[in-house]
Amino acid sequence: RQAATKWLDREDIEKFVDQYDTWLLDCDGVIWLGEEAVQGVPETLAELRRRGKRIFFVSNNASKHRSTYLSKFQKLGIEASVDDVVTSALGAAQYVVKKYGKGAKVFACGTAGLIHELSDAGATVVQPQYVMDTTTSSSGPTLLPLGELDMDIKAVVAGADWTLTHRKLSYATLCLTCIPGCEFIATNRDRLVPAADGRKYPGAGATIGALENVINKPANVTIGKPGPMLLQILFDSSGLDKSRAIMVGDRLDTDIEFGRKGGVDTLLVLTGVSSRELADSAVGDQVADYGVKSLGDIGTALSLLKK
Length: 307
Hints:
Strand content: 15-25%
Structural class: alpha/beta
């Protein structure tokens, strides 16, 4: 691997693009900023598709089902299907079904989007009424007498949960401490999530941290970035060639580290979080293989070459 980032010039672009058949793209800060596409990115993606490239949109967000992304892509003029979207919720669902089989029972501390992905993959999501009921104040020590703990639950899957209650945490805790071998699966560890009001709110890290603290042990596995598991799940299920794939992101500590740990080349864009100065001083798995000001610049360079 390169010890320092190679910053691409316009004359490098054609050869660079030819090296990679599979493009793994972070979304926020790479494809869009807020509700607007990064300039030139829709055109770049269209040109990559015209050249036969396979494109995946990779997100740590486990709160949404993949189908909810499609309306935003459509609004921004970007071609995409559900199968092009890879999230930590999808990764968690595929992990569960591959390890325990279709029909395996899980308990989820997460949103409807996570439950939807788990169900779509073939898992059985246990949702006891007495746990999910928001009208009762029963919790903690008074929880179990209201219903039986399902001892067939294979795993607790935890992510961002906008309706997290003490009842859910109690049931998850009982699963992890009373059911032999029950696995604790974290979708991702994003501590904070940005909202439209400009503020940041507790993300998956809040749910996972609470459970790790009370059971006094870490989650058995974390699916999302920056760990390599989501990438491995994607390549195992698709049969694509890692040596012909590149991860494009705007964050050294998630996207670039994710790609490096997962064994694929990486491209940093400067339209989001990380700066060139930060990139040039990075070490270890946070050193991007390549850098460019914007993903849109690649499309611009390719279009100029055609003229």
